[in-house]
Amino acid sequence: MRISVIGTGYLGAVHAAGMAELGFDVVGVDVDAAKVELLSQARMPFYEPDFEPLLEKHVGKGLRFTTDMSEIADADVHFICVGTPQRKNSLAADMSYVDSSLDAMIPFLKDGSLVVGKSTVPVGTAERLMERIEVATPESVSVELAWNPEFLREGFAVQDTLHPDRLVLGVNGDNAESILREVYAHTITQDQTPVVVTDLPTAELVKVAANSFLATKISFINAMSEICDVAGADVTALADAIGYDDRIGRKFLNAGVGFGGGCLPKDIRAFSARAAELGAGQSVAFLNEMDAINIRRREHVVNLVREHLGALLGRRVAVLGAAFKPNSDDVRDSPALSIAGQLHLAGAQVSVYDPKAMPNATKIFPTLNYADSATEAIQDAEAVLHLTEWPEFRELDPTQVGELVANKLVIDGRNLLDREAYRQAGWTYVGLGRP
Ligand code: NAD
Q1: Would you say the CB of residue 45 lies under 6 angstroms from ligand 1?
Q2: What CATH fold (topology level) applies to the domain 199-435?
Q3: What is the model's pLDDT at position 173?
Q4: Which residues are catalytic?
Q5: Hey, whose CA ends up nearest to atom 17 of ligand 1?
Q6: Which pLDDT tens digit goes with each residue over 350-394?
Q7: What CATH topology corresponds to 2-196?
Q8: 64 alpha carbon to ligand 1 midpoint, in Å?
């Protein structure tokens, strides 16, 4: 079976390599020539653990990348993995990349082929795209469309692609389910991965519902963190205690600077915009509150710095972290970078360091100062902000670091540093939602 993957970003590039690892002949297509060039040399256009060895193993053998859409003509299954970012002037998803990629694919779809959407989209998209395919393909060419939402986590993308925790197959044609079961046969038989077969709108909704739930869990604990702050309580102990209830669970209950990245923020916004279009805005109105709690976390950290240092003009602040999460170089809607930017715009001299995200951070926020190491960022700082939970930041020795700074103030935006060790080394340690 031959597979094409349209859009080779964080999702598509790893999916393409994953499909090659499963033994398929794969072509990845992207409009970004620079990205295609790197991938064609088995080099990663973004940082993702374990991804480069997979590229090295398959590029030039079962896996190739191109900007030429006509190269999908041989493929039996086409995965759409293009971006669905937030629109410039609304909360809704920008569907122009999905639409234009499908239009470019249509002339090359052969009879009996299957188009599979993986991008995260507003419910109703699959039906709309199917109509587009039906109108544009000749009667002699029969094409099916399925939706197979993706749940991979950046930082674990290779593992999650090869061993997903579940497969959701949204289908409505005669052959889509059996073709997708063939694509994922290895996973289904070896890992006994649960398969949930649904109609198209359910599959589209599964993804946004899952992300809404995760965003809600994070914002819930962050709301508790705000209460802990005013009540003098400790949100980490609270999370441990409620997390022992297996109906609640401890995962995603770490209070801190909140969620970010290329998915959760734009997905909950697009969901609420789509629900409103369908006349059901009230049903997910709570998501706007989750969003507001999340954005407040960033302002809270800026206010903490102000509280401790007074006016921000000219104050030297070290920001540890720029990526929205560790093991990634993704800075899309990153809380760390948003906080760094707000402090900078308020007049502080901000020095940022991240082990992997410096090139991306420099691109979207070129006016910040970037250091070559954590210790360089920290040098002479009057406040140190721990904003992305890279292990190397936790390993810093508070005594040694204390000798570098002008003022021993650390704000732990992830509640993960060793609070007692910092205090013993003479630091003012400020956690979020904990004394
Ligand atoms: P991305 O921006 O990293 O990648 C999108 C790619 O699509 C880019 O390389 C872009 O050049 C390409 N593209 C745009 N228009 C194209 C066209 N007409 N033809 C070919 N290629 C085109 O985005 P991403 O993070 O990979 O996300 C892609 C989709 O997957 C989104 O809907 C996202 O919500 C969803 N998703 C992402 C993740 C994740 O962790 N990143 C996880 C699950 C789902």
Answers
A1: no
A2: Rossmann fold (3.40.50)
A3: 83
A4: 263
A5: 101
A6: 999 999 999 999 999 999 999 999 999 999 999 999 999 999 999
A7: Rossmann fold (3.40.50)
A8: 18
